[in-house]
């Protein structure tokens, strides 16, 4: 089974096929992730890493959704997909003109068919993208990098997780990066 480091840039990872659209990065494979289909077979990938990549892709909604479908297509059942992105309320996200869309836990969970079905039953307004696109993954974990001065105050016990959550809702530059780990569900959730 394959492991892919998609959009690797100069961050090459041992044990992975390092993939980028720019030959100047000297990846193992040059692939434009916005052109379909991707060159890997259905269900052939055990693990995908996308570090500071997804926020650059799919300015057009149809292209973004096609990327999600390709991620799902190439992944084996129970494959792990790790996505690291800048928090949308950080200068790292806002300053880069090549960032085309914010990536959030809530947005990624729109491809979880179990949550899609719950939302439908509860009369929720979330678009059930997992069902519509026939993709399904579960958010296994999410982690954030708290920026200074918030990190020191949090680590020193002066701020609680609730304090950080409130700060994120009201201030910029509280969180730098977010890392989301998804597990691919094949067959899709049947509940």
UniProtKB/TrEMBL annotation:
Annotated GO MF terms: methyltransferase activity
Query: Which domain of life does the protein's organism represent?
Result: Bacteria
- What SUPFAM superfamilies does the record point to? S-adenosyl-L-methionine-dependent methyltransferases (SSF53335)
Q: Which UniProt keywords apply?
A: Methyltransferase, Transferase
- Please report the stretch or stretches of sequence annotated as the Methyltransferase type domain: 17-81
Q: Which organism is it from?
A: Chromobacterium piscinae
Q: What is this protein called?
A: Methyltransferase domain-containing protein
Q: What InterPro entries does this protein's entry cite?
A: Methyltransf_11, SAM-dependent_MTases_sf
The record ties this protein, via Pfam families, to: Methyltransf_11 (PF08241)
Q: Tell me, what is an example of a GO biological process annotation in this record?
A: methylation
List the Gene3D superfamilies: Vaccinia Virus protein VP39
